[in-house]
Write a sequence for this structure.
C-alpha cells in the first residue's frame, strides 16, 4: 500500500519510529518511478534547486518531512529521531537531501527556538514546504575562526536595525530568500557579548550579493555587502546582544544533527564507491566504514540529546572532527581507487566524484575549523591548564 | 543491572583488585561473583570487569573465561583458550580428521598458567572452515609470559593435540560458533584497550600540565594541546563504540569496537609517548607498561588492519553497507 496522506503519516508517528520507518521505506519503493528524476542531479544550479524544491514539496505534501516538527510550525509532531530517520532512508535509497544541507537541520531549529512565535510560525512552514531557501550570514572577511570579532554593524533605530558591513562564505546566498545573520549591536570590541542574531529578507534594498566561485566550480559561496539595510526589530532572534547563544545553537545543530544526515549520505556513497571501484583496497573500505560508523555513533548521541531538549555542550566538537576525518578519508580513498576516472573523466558520475572530493576538503574548515574544535576539546573536555 | 548497581560493583571490584596479591586474585574475583556475572550478563560483565583489568594492568586470563562461555562451555580456572597467532583474525591452528580422531597442530597465543589446564578450547581450521574444539589437555603449558610484555602473561603455543572427533563444538553453520566467540572476545578486548588508552592519556595530561619549558607549562603550547585533543577524540569514539557493542552484541559492532579501540591506542601510543619526552622512554615512568600492553592487545583476535580488511571484504561481498546503531 502506498501511504501518501499527512493524516496517515501522522497516525503512524504515534506508533513509533520503527513503524514509520517501515512505512516510509515502503513508500520510497512504491514510488520509485516518481522519485527517480531526483537521483544524480547535475547541471546548472537553477534547475538543480528547482528539482530539490520539487522533491521537498512532494515530501511535504505526503507528510513525511513534516514529522518531528511541532504542529504550530507546520509539522506533524513526534521526535527529532523521526527527522533523522527520514533523511537516513532517503540517503540510503540514493536520493539527495531535498533541502540544502545548511538550512533545514542547521538554521531551522534556531529559528524555531529563538524567533518570536508568530515569525517562526510564518517562516518554518515555508522552509519545510520548499517554498524558500535560507542562508547563514556568520563569517566575515576579518572574522572566521574568531567569529566573536565580527564587525557588521547593526545600528539601533528604534523599531528597526540599520545594517552596514560585509559577510563572506555565505553559501547559496544568490538563491536565498532569507538570511540568518549575526551583527554587532554592542560596542566595537564587545566580543561575543555584543552580538545580535536576526533573520532578514534577501530582497531588502541595500544588499549586494557577489558570487565567489568555489574550488568545485559552483556558485555556492557569495560575498554580501550591506549598505543601510533596514531590518524590523520584530525579526530579531533571541535577546539583543544575546546572539552568541543563537550562534552556538546553530553550530551545535550543524556539528551534530546535520552530521547525522551527512553520515547517512557518506554510508550510501561508500556503497557506490565499493560498487564502482573494484580495485578499492578492502582495508581502506573497512576503515572508511569504521570512520563513518564513528560519526554515526557521535551524531546519534547529539541528536538524542537535542531531542530531549538538552544542550549537547561541547560534545558536537567531537562530531565535527569525525565528520571531516571521515569525509576526507572517503574521498581520498575514491581518488586513490579510481584516479583516471575521477581526475580526468568527463562523464557526469566522474564530475560528481570530482566535485565531492573538492568539497570534502572544506569539511575541516566550515562550521568551525578542526583547529577550533581541538581547542574546545583541550580547553573544555581535557581542561588543560594554559599557564 | 542499572547504572548505580554497575558502578557499585565496579568500585567494589576495584578495591578487591587493589588489595589482593596477584596469586590470590583469581580466587578473590570468583568470590566476588565474576563467573556468575559472566553467566548471567556476559556483555555487561565484560563492560564492568575489563576496564579494570586494563586500568590496573591485571594479568589474569579472564578473556579465556569470556571466550569459553561464548563457545557455550563452562568457564573456570582450569579451562584455557588458544587464540590465533598475533594479528590473525582467523584461526591459525589446523585440524585433520583421522579415523575418528581429530589431529591438530595448535599454533597461537595463550595465557601462561602456573599449572597446565585440564581442558583446552581452541579454534582450528578444519577443511578450511573455522571450528571450535574442546577437550582434555595432557601436554605442557607455558608457565610465564614472553616478549615485550612478559608481565601480561601472553605466550606463544606450538603443540600437537589429538581428541576424539566428537570434541568439535557444533553450532549451526560452519564458523558461526567461532564468530560468536571472537565477537565476545572483541568486546572484552575493546573495553580493556580503552582503559589502557585512558591511562596513557591521563599520564600525558599529568605530565604536560606539570612540567615547564621556556617558562611555560607544556600544556599551554597549542601543538601539545592539539595532540592531546586528538587522542581524546578517538577515546570518545572508541568508548561510544564499546558501549554500542555491549548494547547490541552483534558481530560487526563488536569488531568495530575493537578497531576503534585500536585506532585510539595507536594515536595514544604515538602522541602520549612523544609528549612525555624522555620520560616516556624510561622504566621509571609507568607509561611503558601501558605501551607494552597496548601493542599486544591491539594484535589479539585480529590486528586493526586485518579486521578492517575483513570488514571491507564483507561490504564488497554483500554489495551493501551494513546498517548498525539505528536511531
Amino acid at each position: 500500500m502506498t501511504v501518501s496522506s499527512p493524516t496517515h503519516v501522522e497516525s503512524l508517528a504515534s506508533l513509533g519510529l520503527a513503524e514509520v520507518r517501515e512505512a516510509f521505506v515502503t513508500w520510497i519503493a512504491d514510488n520509485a518511478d516518481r522519485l527517480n528524476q531526483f537521483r544524480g542531479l547535475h547541471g546548472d544550479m537553477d534547475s538543480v534547486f528547482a528539482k530539490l524544491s520539487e522533491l521537498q514539496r512532494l515530501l511535504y505534501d505526503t507528510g513525511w518531512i513534516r514529522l518531528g516538527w511541532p504542529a504550530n510550525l507546520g509539522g506533524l509532531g513526534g521526535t527529532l529521531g523521526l527527522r533523522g530517520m527520514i533523511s537516513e532512508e532517503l540517503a540510503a535509497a540514493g536520493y539527495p537531501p531535498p533541502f540544502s544541507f545548511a538550512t533545514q537541520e542547521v538554521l531551522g531549529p534556531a529559528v524555531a527556538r529563538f524567533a518570536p512565535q508568530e515569525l517562526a510560525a510564518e517562516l518554518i512552514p515555508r522552509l519545510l514546504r520548499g517554498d524558500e531557501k535560507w542562508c547563514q550570514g556568520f563569517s566575515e572577511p576579518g572574522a572566521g575562526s574568531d567569529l566573536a570579532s565580527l564587525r557588521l554593524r547593526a545600528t539601533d533605530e528604534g523599531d528597526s536595525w540599520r545594517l552596514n558591513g560585509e559577510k563572506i562564505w555565505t553559501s547559496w546566498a544568490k538563491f536565498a530568500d532569507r538570511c540568518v545573520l549575526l551583527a554587532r549591536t554592542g560596542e566595537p570590541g564587545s566580543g561575543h557579548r555584543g552580538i545580535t542574531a536576526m533573520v532578514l529578507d534577501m530582497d531588502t534594498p541595500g544588499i549586494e550579493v557577489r558570487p565567489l566561485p568555489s574550488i568545485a566550480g559552483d556558485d555556492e559561496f557569495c560575498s554580501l555587502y550591506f549598505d543601510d539595510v533596514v531590518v524590523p526589530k520584530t525579526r530579531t532572534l533571541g535577546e539583543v546582544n544575546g546572539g552568541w547563544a543563537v550562534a552556538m545553537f546553530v553550530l551545535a545543530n550543524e556539528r551534530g544533527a546535520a552530521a547525522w544526515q551527512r553520515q547517512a549520505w557518506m554510508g550510501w556513497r561508500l556503497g557506490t564507491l565499493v560498487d564502482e571501484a573494484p580495485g578499492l583496497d578492502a582495508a581502506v573500505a573497512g576503515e572508511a566504514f569504521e570512520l563513518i560508523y564513528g560519526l554515526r555513533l557521535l551524531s546519534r548521541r547529539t541528536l538524542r540529546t537535542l531531542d530531549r531538549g538538552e544542550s549537547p555542550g561541547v560534545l558536537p566538537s567531537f562530531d565535527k572532527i569525525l565528520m571531516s576525518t571521515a569525509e576526507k578519508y572517503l574521498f581520498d580513498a575514491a581518488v586513490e581507487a579510481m584516479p583516471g576516472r575521477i581526475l580526468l573523466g568527463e562523464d557526469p558520475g566522474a564530475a560528481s566524484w570530482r566535485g565531492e572530493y573538492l568539497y570534502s576538503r572544506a569539511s575541516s574548515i566550515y562550521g568551525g575549523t578542526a583547529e577550533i574544535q581541538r581547542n574546545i576539546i583541550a580547553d573544555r573536555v581535557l581542561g588543560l591548564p594554559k599557564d | 543491572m542499572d547504572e548505580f548497581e554497575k558502578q557499585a560493583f565496579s568500585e567494589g571490584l576495584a578495591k578487591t583488585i587493589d588489595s589482593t596479591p596477584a596469586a590470590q586474585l583469581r580466587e578473590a574475583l570468583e568470590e566476588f561473583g565474576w563467573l556468575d556475572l559472566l553467566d548471567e550478563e556476559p556483555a555487561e560483565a565484560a563492560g564492568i570487569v575489563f576496564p579494570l583489568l586494563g586500568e590496573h594492568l591485571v594479568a589474569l586470563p579472564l578473556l579465556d573465561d569470556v571466550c569459553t562461555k561464548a563457545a557455550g562451555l563452562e568457564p573456570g580456572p582450569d579451562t584455557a583458550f588458544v587464540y590465533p597467532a598475533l594479528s590473525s583474525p582467523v584461526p591459525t591452528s589446523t585440524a585433520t580428521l583421522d579415523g575418528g580422531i581429530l589431529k591438530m597442530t595448535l599454533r597461537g597465543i595463550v595465557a601462561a598458567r602456573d599449572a597446565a589446564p585440564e581442558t583446552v578450547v581452541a579454534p582450528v581450521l578444519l577443511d578450511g572452515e573455522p571450528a571450535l574444539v574442546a577437550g582434555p589437555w595432557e601436554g605442557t603449558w607455558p608457565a610465564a609470559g614472553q616478549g615485550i610484555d612478559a608481565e601480561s602473561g601472553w605466550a606463544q603455543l606450538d603443540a600437537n593435540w589429538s581428541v576424539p572427533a566428537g570434541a568439535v563444538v557444533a553450532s549451526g553453520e560452519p564458523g558461526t560458533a567461532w564468530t560468536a566467540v571472537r565477537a565476545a572476545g572483541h568486546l572484552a578486548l575493546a573495553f580493556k584497550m580503552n582503559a589502557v588508552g585512558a591511562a596513557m592519556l591521563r599520564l600525558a595530561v599529568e605530565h604536560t600540565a606539570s612540567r615547564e619549558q621556556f617558562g611555560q607549562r607544556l600544556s599551554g603550547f597549542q601543538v601539545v594541546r592539539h595532540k592531546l585533543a586528538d587522542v581524546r577524540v578517538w577515546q570518545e569514539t572508541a568508548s561510544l563504540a564499546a558501549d554500542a557493542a555491549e548494547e547490541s552484541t552483534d558481530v560487526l559492532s563488536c569488531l568495530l569496537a575493537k578497531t576503534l579501540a585500536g585506532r585510539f591506542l595507536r594515536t595514544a601510543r604515538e602522541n602520549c609517548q612523544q609528549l612525555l619526552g624522555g620520560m616516556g622512554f624510561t622504566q621509571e615512568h609507568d607509561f611503558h607498561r601501558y605501551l607494552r600492553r597496548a601493542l599486544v592487545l591491539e594484535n589479539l583476535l585480529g590486528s586493526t588492519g586485518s579486521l578492517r580488511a575483513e570488514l571491507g571484504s564483507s561490504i564488497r561481498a554483500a554489495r551493501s553497507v551494513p546498517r548498525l546503531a539505528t536511531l
